[in-house]
Amino acid sequence: MIETPSGKSAKDENFPVGSWLLPPALRPHIALFYAFARAGDDIADNPALAPAEKVERLTAFGQALQDGSGDPAEFGKAHRLRHSLIETNVTPRHGLDLLEAFKRDATKLRYDSWDDLIGYCRLSASPVGRYLLDLHGEVPEYRASDALCDSLQILNHLQDCQEDHRDLDRVYLPGDWMTANGVTIDQLQGQAATPGLRRVINLCLDGVDDLLRVAATLPGQLRSRRLAMESAVILMLARRLSTLLRRGDPIAGRVGLSKADFLAGGISGVFRALVS
Fold it and tell me: Phi then psi for 45, rounded to 5 degrees?
């Protein structure tokens, strides 16, 4: 098998994936895009595969998406997404960019700077928002969408910084900030964040908050009221998670959104989109 399923699904994600807020006719297409992305991510995260093997499998997935090659039993998710993209007139570029990010996950374990990390997010996160904009027929002005998606990616990295290092030897914290604050990688496996590591986390959250200020313009730019509501909800949840990560310590324990946070963010986000 080309795929290496982890068992994860949309229910395991921190933020909504194709929620009921989005148009019912588009949700099946979004589900296909997510399934394709999940398959690629699972390959990249499989500790039993060597980096070269991961890249080879991800390359084959990309080829199948572009031209329909490969055994349908092996590349079904790529083939189904390919047909969906043709039906909806959406470019395969977004799916291919995600695969490039997964290849980077297989071969690049450290990031030198904030700009280096944002460059990764432009492949691993931005394509999701760009796909949704294109699917909804929105004018392709991606800046605010990129900012929202990139902020979500960094928030996830901060939540999982200990686990990513322990299980995959990946560190998604800017190396220059770690050096400047006297942070060594082994501190990620401590019982609590050191003062230096806390400063690095806060610098990342400062960057997230800058991104969220740009992302705040997204709901008002959208013609689709449903997509505007979805983006407003996600924006509210991202702000809440940023606040929780400033107050909490992701080294000492899991910092995440509660059911109450989802409910409050959902109500607030929908209301803001409706009155904007």
Answer: -95, 0
pLDDT tens for 235-265 read 999 999 999 999 999 999 999 887 765 655 5
Distance CA 110, CA 83 (A): 36
d(C-alpha 21, C-alpha 51), whole Å: 38
Q: Which residues lie across from 174 on neighbouring strands?
A: 111
* DSSP at 192: S
Number of other residues whose CB lies within 10 A of the CB of residue 16: 17
Digit-coded pLDDT (tens) for 42-91: 999 999 999 999 999 999 999 999 999 999 989 999 999 999 999 999 99
Q: Is 271 left (phi over 0), alpha (psi -120 to 50) or beta?
A: alpha
- Residue 178 identity (one-letter amino acid): M
Helix (H, G, I), strand (E, B) or coil at 174: strand
Residues 6+ apart with CB under 8 A from 174: 111, 112, 113, 114, 116, 117, 200, 203, 204
**Helical segments of 18-50, H only:** 27-45
CA-CA-CA-CA dihedral for 195, 114, 36, 138, to nearest 10: 120
Cβ burial 28-64 (10 Å sphere, 16+ → b, else e): ebbbbbbbbbbbbbbbbbbeebeeeebbbbbebbbbb
